[in-house]
Every structure is written in structure tokens, then in C-alpha cells.
Amino acid sequence: MAASPHSPNSTFRRLRGQHSPAEFAALVRRAAREIGETVSCDARYIGRVESGEIRCPNYAYERVFLHMFPGRALPDLGFSPREAVRGRSAQRDPDPFSTLTSPTPSKESDVLRRAFMAGGSATVAAATLGLTLLGDTRRFPSRAGESEAAAVEDAVRQIRLLDDRHGADALYRRAAEPLRTAYALLDAGATRQSTEDRLQAGAGELAVSVGWLAHDSGRFDDARSHYAEALATARVSGDAGLEAHAFSNMAFLARDCGRSREAVRAAQAGRRAARSLGSPRLLSLLALREAGGWAGLSDRKACEEALTRAHTEFSRGPAGADPEWMSFFGEAELESLESRCWAALGEHARAARHARRAADLQDPHFARNVALYTAELAGDLARAGAPDEAAWAGGRVLDLLTEVHSTRIRAMLSETARTLIPHQRSPRVGAFLTRHAAV
User: Fold this and answer.
1) Which of 27, 213, 225, 294 could join 299 via S-S bond, C-beta 3.0 to 4.6 A?
2) Which residues pair with 348 in a beta bridge?
3) What is the four-CA torsion angle of 430, 434, 436, 439, rounded to 10 degrees?
4) DSSP 3-state assignment of 144?
């Protein structure tokens, strides 16, 4: 029986079985990829479905759910029929990804919502994310409500999805506009404390996301500024999860900038913030960040100790408390981060083994990460004395760069090309160098 507007969707909860909300959300995303759909499903979305807040999913989610549970209709999954939801103007649209227009928010809120939630191709999305919302001639909301908080949260998800597929270069400058709007909304105040809390968390996560886009596109000073903004937001709001996230990215940035000691300190600060959160995977990632810093300092013993902690925490498996932003962190990312440690310690053959495993394990949906791991593999192979294999891996990266736009990956590939110049008489290496020079 379909859930009423105010009753939990117990049918959907039973279908989830023994999976945690985060685990089930991952299954939803996997099912979406199987049929060519794109959904930003996370533990929070599953919770909203099971609470009855989402009475009927949008069409993309409907196709995914019916693919997951063949032979059933929406009411069999605990949802209300679409015709019973559409057009009820007294009720808030329960699904922020729905194509239906929410009837209750103000016109100004709807403008913000549409701008934040742009989808589609990378080019279209980047342009739409770049709407100059604060320059809009329509009145800016005097007080933020639930609709604005949801729009900020959805902007974070959209940016992450687009980055996973296309890389940062096409997105960074456009994504900065929603970030400014998010902090303007925060400065304007909210209608209730719960909304204020959501805005604080959403604006902070958006600052981390935009910082990452700057980081990946080689704008390190901008990235540092955005990460510091996120950290300040976390400290003001007492948000330990956001603080751990900001420190994790600050450690990553410090390592890339050659400030290894700072990378260690930031990772350790993130670990202190994350201790009470109940997420072994987050502790694993922070241990890997710390290991990268120790490797940069050529402290092999400390690096190996941090790697051991990372593997121990990772082996504990996923948990319901795992942050939504950690959807990228699986075995492939663990292998990649360990690979970078061994490369920094000068053990390039060992690094190549981990980089190869990372590339093989990575879900093709995350095209940027596939390109990144393969670029790491190419560099490690070139330095390990395997030029032909390095050229082959470099060619794969060039194939992926037709859809992935990342200054960081291009820089890595350029360094590999320089390393391979002494081997250019090899037909495979020569072909790669010629192709690389052309692009």
C-alpha cells in the first residue's frame, strides 16, 4: 500500500533489507548507471523516502527503482501514484530532483533553485551554474528557507557528479557563483535554526567542492582560500564532519604544493575531528593523507605506520555514518593514494603495481579518476624503466582526455612525456610522444 503524506514508507524500508542507507544508495547509483540514468542518490535521500517525505520519485528515480525491482509498480514500492501527487498546490514538492515546480516557495526561491540544480552536459551545466544570481534584478530572499537550503545541498551534488565525469577545468569559475550565493543566503539568516544549520553545512561543503575544482585545475591559491573558508564555517557551526573534510582536502593540497609537514599536521587535525563521527572509512582516508605527507618527508617508517592504520580502518567496511562526499573513496582510491606514497619514496615499480590496480578497480562512471589513476600508472612505469608500457598507458589517458578536463592530469602526462623523450626511438613511445605533442 502506498504511503500517506505523513506516514513512513515501510514497504521501501523492507526492500532495503540489511543494507545501510549509504550502502543502498550506492546500489541505486549502480542500477542507474546500468540503464544510462544519472541520479545523485545518497543516504539522506533514502531516509527521506523511508520517512514518507518523498511520496513519489521523479521519472529518473522511478526508472531506476523499477529496474531494481522488476515486475513492480510504484505503489508496490510504497509510493503514491503520480497523479495523486501532481498538482496538489498546498504541499511542497517532496523531491528536489523532480521536474515538477514546487508551488510553495517564492519566485525568488525558484530562480535560485533552478540555477543551483542545473544538469545535462558539462558545457550546459557549467554555463547554468554560472548564472550571476546575486545580480538578478528580482528581489533576493530576505530570509532563507528549506527550499534554499535544499538548493545549496543539490548544488554540491551536481558539482561532484560533473567533476567525476568531466574534471574541474570547465566548472571552476562557473561554480564560484553558487558559492557566493550560498554565503549570501547564510548572511541573510534563516527562518529557523534547523535551516540555518543546513545552510551552514551546505555552504561549507560547497566551499570544499569549489576549492577542489580550483585544486584540480591548478589554482592552488584559490583552493587554499576556499578550504580555509570551509574550515572557518565548520569551526563557527561546530560541524566536526565538515571540519574533517576541510582538513582532508587541505592535507591533499599541501602535499601537492610540496608542503609535506603541513600535510601531516592537517591530516592529523582531521583525524582528531573525525574520531567521534563513527566512520572508519573517513579515518582510513585521513591516514592515507597523513601517509602521503610522511612520504614527502622521506620518513618511510612513519609512512608505513600510517598506511597500516589506513588499511585497518578500511577493512572495517562502510558505515551509515560515512559522509556523502566520500562516495569516491573505495578500494581503487586507496590503491591510488598508496601508489603515490611509494612513488614519493622512490619505489616506482611498487607504485606502478598499486596504480595499475587502482585503474583496474575504478568504476568507469568516474571517468576523471580512471584518467587520473592511468596517468599515475604511466608516470610510475616511465620512472620504473618500462617505457613501452608507460607509452601505452599514456595513450589511454589521451583517449580519456577527450571528455575529461583536468589541468592536474595534463600536467602529470606532460611530465611522463618528458621522462620518455630518451626512449623516443621506440615505435610505441614515439607514437605516444607525437600524439601528446599534437594535443
Assistant:
1) 294
2) none
3) -170
4) strand
3-state secondary structure of 272: helix
The answer to whether the beta carbons of residues 20 and 47 sit under 8 Å apart is: no
Is pLDDT above 90 for 299?
yes
To 5 degrees, how large is the angle CA 165–CA 166–CA 168? 120
Amino acid, single-letter form, for residue 143: R
Position 328 confidence tier, pLDDT thresholds 50, 70, 90: confident
The three three-digit cell numbers of residue 134, written as one number: 546575486
Indicate the pLDDT class of residue 82, thresholds 50, 70 and 90: low
pLDDT on residue 77? 93
Long-range contacts of 304-312 (CB under 8 A, 24+ apart): 307/338, 307/341, 309/283, 309/284, 310/284, 310/285, 310/334, 310/337, 310/338, 311/284, 312/284
* Contact status, residue 426 vs residue 388, Cβ threshold 8 Å: yes
Tell me phi and psi for residue 379, to 5 degrees. Answer: -65, -40
**Residue 337, number of CB atoms within 10 A of its CB:** 23
Alpha carbons 399 and 51: distance in angstroms, whole number: 45
Average pLDDT over residues 379-386: 96
Q: 299 phi and psi, to 5 degrees?
A: -95, 90
Distance CA 278, CA 433 (A): 48
Phi, psi of 37 (to 5 degrees): -95, 165
In the numeric block, the cell 560547497 is attached to 206
pLDDT of residue 107: 39
**Per-residue confidence (pLDDT) for residue 108, from 0 to 100:** 38
Picking from 406, 255, 439, the residue whose alpha carbon sits closest to that of residue 417 is: 439
Q: Measuring CA to CA, how many Å separate 79 from each of 1, 42, 55, 74?
A: 8, 18, 5, 5
* 419 has pLDDT over 70: yes
pTM beyond 0.90: no
The grid coordinates of residue 255 equal 602535499
Cα separations (Å) of 154 from 195, 197, 203, 424? Answer: 15, 16, 11, 48
